[in-house]
Amino acid sequence: MIVTSALIIWKALMCITGSESPVVVVLSESMEPGFKRGDILFLHMSKEPIRAGEIVVFNVDGREIPIVHRVIKVHERQDTGEVDVLTKGDNNPGDDRLLYAQGQHWLQRQHIMGRAVGFLPYVGWVTIIMTEKPIIKYILIGALGLLVITSKD
Amino acid sequence: MHSFGYRLNALLTFAVTILALMCAIASLSDNFNTPSPSAEIQITNINWFQKQPQGNDEVSLTMNISADLQSLFTWNTKQVFIFVAAEYETPKNSLNQVSLWDAIIPAKEHAKFWIHTSNKYRFVDQGNNLRGKEFNLTLHWHVMPKTGKMFADKIVMTGYSLPEEYR
After folding, report:
1. What ipTM did this prediction achieve?
2. Element (H or E) spanning B13, and its range?
3. Where is the signal peptide (chain B) (predicted)?
4. d(CA A121, CA A1)
5. What is the pTM of this model?
6. Which residues of A touch B (CB under 8 A)?
7. Known catalytic residue at A84
8. N or C: which terminus of chain A has fewer CB atoms within 10 Å of its end residue's CB?
9. How many helices (H) and strands (E) does chain B have?
10. Domains of chain A
């Protein structure tokens, strides 16, 4: 029941927020004390322009894991409306230029996957534990499989 | 139908659903809060104003920032993140927002404050358009809840300008 309802909620969130991954788990302490490791963030991507202060999720070319940080600088072109964006983690001493690709000084719209609009504490720990200690994932799946096999329905 | 496993499953699903509902209601209660924040910023000194080797203007300034943001806090508020940004227009860019200073307010008691500080982050333009530039200083805040929807808003203060000449 939990699994199916979680799946339904996940798919519904994908439709509502219009984003491919509507929920991300916070993996680092770079946004503390606001977001701690294990919190989950709800994302939403609208056509509104990116503005300073928004918390955005972005991918750097060559890195798999998306990063969730705050926009601290915005430069928007007069003619094209395209933006150069600089981000920084609240808890980091410096901005994110060190994290961007070699020679990259700004993020553009295409790098940004969504804005964080809401959050739930602690719920993401399940994902972190399952990623960092895969044995737990196997135990869980094994137990679920056992439940299915042994139920008398 | 009444096995232990089935009952545990039903109980857990119910518990998780109720918890999710409580988080949603907690977040909804934030909508009933009507905040009335106030802020004032004075630029006390332009420390220096130079053109960098790559051709970009940079300015260092000192400000007095005073604000009363106590009305933003509700029981569901974990912290309020605030920052001061300079906003201006140039021939090349329709909007430039450069964050100069930020802080985290962890509790209501700290939300009424006065601070004398130079800019934490470098005020650098894309180009050399800053001489004599008029700009706004906006105080943005981002209310981060214990659970649920985050709120953000700002106060725009106009009428600031940079010197005509480098110094």
Report:
1. 0.82
2. helix B4-29
3. 1-26
4. 23
5. 0.82
6. 1-2, 5, 33-35, 51-55, 70, 72-78, 81, 84, 90, 95, 116-121, 147, 150-153
7. no
8. C
9. 1, 9
10. 1-121 (2.10.109.10), 124-152 (no CATH)
